C-alpha cells in the first residue's frame, strides 16, 4: 500500500532473460460467436505454435442476444447473465457450446519473447472453412488483460494501470482488430515492509481494419501482439531519511528569512 509518507523512486535495469515464463491473464467476452466457433491460438518468435488451446483456457457460453454481460469486472452477476456450469460443458459436442455468446478466460504461460495471441475461427483439418470465416463476428469486450501476478497491486502516477481493461469493440462488417502491447518487467519494493513483488506492465495501441475475406490470406479475428522489453522498471517505496526533512526545513526557514528581510527593507525605504 502506498501512503503519503512514502516516496517512489524508479530505476531501470537491463535484463534479457528469455527463459522466464510470463503469465498472460485474459477474460474476454465474444457475444456474437459460439464457443464451438472460437479458437484461441498462441504463437511466438521462438517457434512455438499452439492452436485451439483448451488446457489453460475455459470457454463459458452465455446467452445475451448479442450483448455483453453487465459486470465490468468480468463476473456473471445475475441469473440472466449467469454462465453455464462447467460440468455441463465436459462434452465437447454439447449443443450448449453452439449458442452465441462465449467468454474466454484463463492464464497462458509463454516465454518472455515476442508473441501473438489469436482469437479466430476454429480450423477443421488445419484449414478454415469459408462459411466459418463469413459468419465470424469479432465484436468483443476485454474484461481484463494483464501479465504476471494478478494479485500484485499496481501503481501509476497517471492512474492508468491496465490500459485495455473494459475495452469494447463492436464490429459492423468483416474486420479484424490488432492490439500492439509493449510489455515491461516491473517490480515493487517496499523497504519498510521488506516486501518485493514482481510482475509485468504494458502499454497498448490498436488498429481496426476492414478486410476482404480470403484476399491475401486475410481472416477475421482479434490479434494481440505482445513484445517484452529487456528493460526492467523497479519501483522502490520508502520513507525519506530524516536528514531530508531537515534540509527542506532549513530551506523553508532560509527562504522565509530572505523574503521578510526584503519586505522589511522595502517598508523602511518608503517610510523615509
TrEMBL record:
Signal peptide, first to last residue: none
Subcellular location: Membrane
Keyword presence, Transmembrane helix: yes
Source organism (scientific name): Strigomonas culicis
Transmembrane segments: 245-271
Alphabetical keyword list: Membrane, Transmembrane, Transmembrane helix
Domain named Endoplasmic reticulum vesicle transporter N-terminal: residues: 9-50
Gene Ontology CC terms, in alphabetical order: COPII-coated ER to Golgi transport vesicle; endoplasmic reticulum; membrane
Limits of the Endoplasmic reticulum vesicle transporter C-terminal domain: 99-264
PANTHER family linked to this entry: ENDOPLASMIC RETICULUM-GOLGI INTERMEDIATE COMPARTMENT PROTEIN, PTHR10984:SF27
Protein's UniProt name: ERGIC and golgi family 3
Amino acid at each position: 500500500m502506498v501512503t503519503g509518507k512514502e516516496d517512489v523512486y524508479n530505476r531501470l535495469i537491463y535484463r534479457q532473460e528469455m527463459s522466464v515464463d510470463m503469465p498472460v491473464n485474459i477474460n474476454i467476452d465474444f457475444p456474437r460467436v459460439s464457443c464451438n466457433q472460437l479458437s484461441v491460438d498462441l504463437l511466438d518468435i521462438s517457434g512455438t505454435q499452439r492452436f485451439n488451446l483448451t488446457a489453460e483456457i475455459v470457454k463459458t457460453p452465455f446467452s445475451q442476444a448479442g450483448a455483453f454481460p453487465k459486470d465490468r469486472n468480468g463476473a456473471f452477476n445475475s441469473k440472466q447473465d449467469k454462465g453455464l456450469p462447467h460440468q455441463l460443458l465436459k462434452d465437447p459436442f454439447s449443443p450448449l457450446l453452439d449458442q452465441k455468446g462465449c467468454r474466454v478466460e484463463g492464464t497462458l504461460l509463454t516465454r518472455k519473447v515476442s508473441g501473438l495471441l489469436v482469437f479466430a475461427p476454429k480450423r477443421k483439418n488445419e484449414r478454415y472453412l469459408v462459411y466459418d470465416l463469413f459468419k465470424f463476428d469479432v465484436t468483443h469486450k476485454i474484461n481484463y488483460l494483464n501479465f504476471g501476478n494478478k494479485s500484485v497491486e499496481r501503481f501509476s502516477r497517471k492512474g492508468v494501470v491496465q490500459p485495455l481493461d473494459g475495452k469494447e469493440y463492436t464490429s459492423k462488417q468483416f474486420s479484424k482488430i490488432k492490439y500492439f502491447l509493449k510489455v515491461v518487467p516491473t517490480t515493487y519494493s517496499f523497504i519498510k515492509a521488506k516486501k518485493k513483488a514482481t510482475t509485468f506492465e504494458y502499454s497498448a495501441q490498436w488498429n481496426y481494419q476492414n478486410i476482404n475475406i480470403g484476399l491475401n490470406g486475410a481472416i477475421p479475428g482479434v490479434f494481440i501482439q505482445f513484445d517484452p522489453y529487456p528493460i526492467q522498471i523497479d519501483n522502490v517505496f520508502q520513507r525519506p531519511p530524516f536528514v531530508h526533512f531537515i534540509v527542506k526545513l532549513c530551506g523553508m526557514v532560509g527562504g522565509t528569512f530572505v523574503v521578510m528581510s526584503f519586505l522589511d527593507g522595502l517598508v523602511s525605504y518608503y517610510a523615509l
